[in-house]
Amino acid sequence: MLSIFRWIFWVIFSFSFFAAAGVGTFLYELSKSLPKNIEAELQKRNEILPTVLYDREGNQIEEFHIQRRIPVSYERFPPHLIQALIASEDTRFFSHIGIDPFRMFKAFLVNVEEGGFVQGASTLTQQTAREFLLTKEKQLIRKLREILLAFRMELQFSKTEILELYLNKVFLGNAEGVEASAQGYFGIHAHELSLAQSAMLIGLLPAPSRYGPNNNPELALIQRDRVLKRMLDEHFITVEEYLNAKEEEIKLIEIDDFASEGTAHYVEHVRRDLLKRYGMENLYQGGLRVTMAMDLDYQMFAHEALQKGILELTKRQGFRGPLKELEWSDNSTLLQEQTDEITSQNRLVLGNNVIGVVQTIEGDEVSVDLGGVFGTLNWDRLKSWQNAMSGKEYPIPFKSIDEALKPGDVIPVKLMDYDPQDQLFRLNLYQEPQVNGAVLGMQPETGQVLAMIGGYEYEDSEFNRAIQAKRQPGSAFKPLVYASAVDAGYTLSSVLVDSPRAFRTGQIKLGEDEIWLPKNYGDKLMGNVSLRTALVKSLNLATIGLIEDLGPKRVIEYSRKLGISSQMRENLTIALGSFSATLQEMVNAFAIFANQGNRTEPIYVLEVSDQSGRILESSQTQTTNIISKETAFLISDVLQDVVRRGTGWRARALGRPSAGKTGTTNDNLDAWYIGFIPQLLTGVYVGFDQPRSMGLHESGSRAAAPVWVEFMKNAVANLPTQQFPQPPGIVSVKIHQSGRRAGPCDLQDEIQEEHYKTGTEPQLDMLLNPNCSDTITESADTNEKEPEL
After folding, report:
1. CA-to-CA dists, residue 537 to 195, 419, 646, 697, angstroms
2. Does 559 or 421 have the greater pLDDT score?
3. Higher-confidence residue: 151 or 726?
4. Number of structural domains, the chain?
5. pLDDT, tens digit (0-9, with 9 covering 90-100), for 76-104
């Protein structure tokens, strides 16, 4: 009998021994898969930081991250935040050793009853281990790893260190960690959180997306109150504190989309460049600090200028009609229900665009329902719009307010002002533009791009029209043609012929050389004109004749030197900018004129450093001389004349000397203006993404130049007025309008001063006699000789 008990004992002992050994071996092998040095591993994971972009003045513009995160020390967390966390997630945190057997047993019973994992028992230590070192799937092996890690963490870290790790890592819907979430939701730092705000953040933990206050404010409040009740139950707060916190209004910050919208194209261009050079991991987790060439003030000036210009153009293109027409009937209940549904998403903040329903039209005033709140739109504001609903080829003015709107029309409007006495908004008609555009401003001397806007709204289109869009520059290309002529031996007084001509294109059509019959803009002809006048007046026929003399190949090769890399066909149509180029290309070329003949590569990033402050790269202006200072000065001087008395006359509104050139393509498909002062060069492009006419008279002068003026007025307000420097190799002489050197007998109104490269100025053939009875015979500078490069 004794032997049987002994045998049973040894069987049980052996089984227990081997089971324990097996479990021990299993746990040992399992522990080998865990990080050997938890502190080092946590430090490594804790160093995953976003890349931050700043403008040139140190203003933070954007972050690139997988999840936004701002680590802070434990002391920066308010006591009531810690108490809310303990009460809600782990009441025995400060007494257990990493796991809570009581909670585990309770969860085990619930899960057995439900037949699956429905309730967890993880302590904050376990959650911290999971956040940093493990995945979140509900598997037994992962749970065992979590328990082992929790034990290790309790041995290596203090309780406050574990809480610091957790609160800096946990996801709260809009970011990782309490500090970033407090800034994102409330616009404050973690240490400034109130009791109610702390409870709301902790209430997000079970399901951050579901309980997020931006998406589900009602559920967020329910969760907040649940956390407050747990704090009351655990005696962390008094009844009075509990009631006061429940009554506190939670104010979420308004996200300023306008600023981010205004910088979006620039930031995306920089992001793509950084991604190529630093890779995905460094860009999104490496904590890079990037200083861009952007000036935030300039960037916003450019954004506002383009929006204003395109909205004005949209007005001229005409009101296309209401978004929808509600059937106007006696059923006021149905009509009100439709109106309420249409206006339900309106945010009635001054400056916003909202949807309204026309209610009544009395005299010159329209009453618009904005969703229980009303606004008025008067005829004075509406009559500035053209009528695009008339069926005419081009929009025509509205004759009356009834011609534009009627009751039941669903229309977009802008909230311009609010009268608290009448409780009415003052409205302006709004219409989403179909046309688009771009602005690019850079320092010609350094190449640093201070502002770049790639489109009207980044949210609607990420396509960057400053960098990616290739459109015909039209007459904006002409300065490059005339610069090639100057370097080929022409002078600004060389005589060109502006008269009707037929040109052979070199293209065979129906077995014969195709004939081209170009015209000037507006069909005006000027006969014999100087090279200066031909460029100032942007004369197509004179320019085509000039290219015929020079040869298209010579002009194309010269343009390549100035940075035009786009494909160009070797024919006379290039005189009219018939090829396609980007705004960046054209601005780069004009910068050579503005920078005394030197080319600088465009710079978008000034400096990149790592999270320790070590500089990884610093931009250096790379300057290459392309053309002589004299040629650059002569073309710049003519471009000043374009502003003074040519197609760029609208740029005179800047109120200081500037140089520039308009560009308009056939049928007004594209409009350009590129202009500069010595310190700043800016290019503007306006046009449809799918080319079509912008409307009658929508030239570079009318559609693009006003955008340039609006931007430059703000941008140069604090810059000193500078004159364009004249290099020593330039001489100025008085010439007769025929192109010869002027003499004492010439009429003053036929004389003007002209600039020349030293040695190219016209000379007198003989001295005048005292009575001026002889005719002056001079060498008229008509460049009949073959020009030389």
Report:
1. 71, 49, 5, 16
2. 559
3. 726
4. 3
5. 999 999 999 999 988 888 988 777 777 66
Backbone angles phi, psi at 661, to 5 degrees: -145, 135
Residue from 119, 147, 149, 145 nearest 39 by CA: 149
Q: Are residues 120 and 227 in the same domain?
A: yes
| pLDDT of the residue at 341 | 87
CATH number at residue 380: 2.40.50.140
Residues classed as catalytic: 89, 475
DSSP string, 592-616: HHHTTTEEE--B-EEEEE-TT--EE
Residues 134, 21 within the same domain: no
User: Do residues 89 and 232 share a domain?
Assistant: yes
- pLDDT confidence tier of residue 765, bands split at 50, 70 and 90: very low
Q: Report yes or no on 395 lying in a domain.
A: yes
Residue 608 β-bridge partners: 290, 617
Q: Does pLDDT of 318 surpass 80?
A: yes
User: Does residue 334 share a domain with residue 195?
Assistant: no
The whole-angstrom separation of Cα 622 and Cα 628 is 17
- DSSP string of 726-769, one letter each residue: PPTTEEEEEEETTSSBP-TTS-GGGEEEEEEETT-S--BSSPPP
CA angle 627/631/632 to nearest 5° reads: 75
| Shared domain check, 341 and 206 | no
Over residues 329-353, mean pLDDT: 81
**Does 179 map to a domain?**
yes
Domain that holds residue 130: 67-247
Q: 110: Cβ–Cβ under 8 A, 6 or more apart, which residues?
A: 118, 119
Q: First vs last Cα of the chain: how many Å apart?
A: 122
Whether residues 79 and 21 fall in one domain:
no
